[in-house]
Amino acid sequence: MAPYSETRRTVVLVTGASSGIGEATARHLADLGYALVLTARRADLLGRLAHDLDPSGRNVLAVAADVSVPEDRVRLVEAAHERFGRVDALVNNAGISIGGGAWWNDRDPLRVLDVNLLAPIELTRLVLPGMLERDSGAVVNIGSVAGRVASHGMYSASKFGLRGFSLSLRRELLGSGVSVSLVAPGFIRTPMNARSRLPMPGPEVVARAVAAMLRAPRAEVFAPAWYGPLSKFDALFPRLTDRMVRRLAGGRPPKPAGR
Fold first, then answer.
1. Average pLDDT, the chain
2. Domains, the chain, ranges and CATH?
């Protein structure tokens, strides 16, 4: 593989890049001139995206991987270092939810924690030493309003955890030159929300927020921004939120499977 010659492009690793927020982020960052390492499980979609962004292959590397698998995480970071020599910024975007039905009826609900929480922590641990050695770097975690307004069982648990990890790591790294930011989307038009009938903006609003965090890091932002006041409503009036959630859920929760 040819060595990477550059005029100091920032190298950004984006997980979950084959569709939705990850794809939109990859496209936006490529337009801004970043070098990219893109990963997702779907090799075909990932390869087409990488070729679309950079047919020469010099500034965009696609690595098919499952971030919930430890060996894949190591292989991903090794591939990034082999191609570009470093990872300047990590965007932990890959995420899953339990679609349809209650989490307690799912055969493996903890996989949500593996992808949404454990994988970002472990990938950060793999790239952080190099960032600290260079006194420069950025970690941008894609959280969710569900990490502030509890409503979706395992998904909310994973995003609450990711928020805690992001905000605490940011303070642990103060003065190191490495920033940690959390972008918390609301309902966004992505494959994960394909069944929702709510009016939703496209994933580009999140992609722009990610780029803003790379340019001028902040601890936490919402995308779109108006979800910030909405999250405060739950903190101030939790019983009203309870009523709305129960109405949307149709009353009683589902019973365990087989009963």
1. 88
2. 11-230 (3.40.50.720)
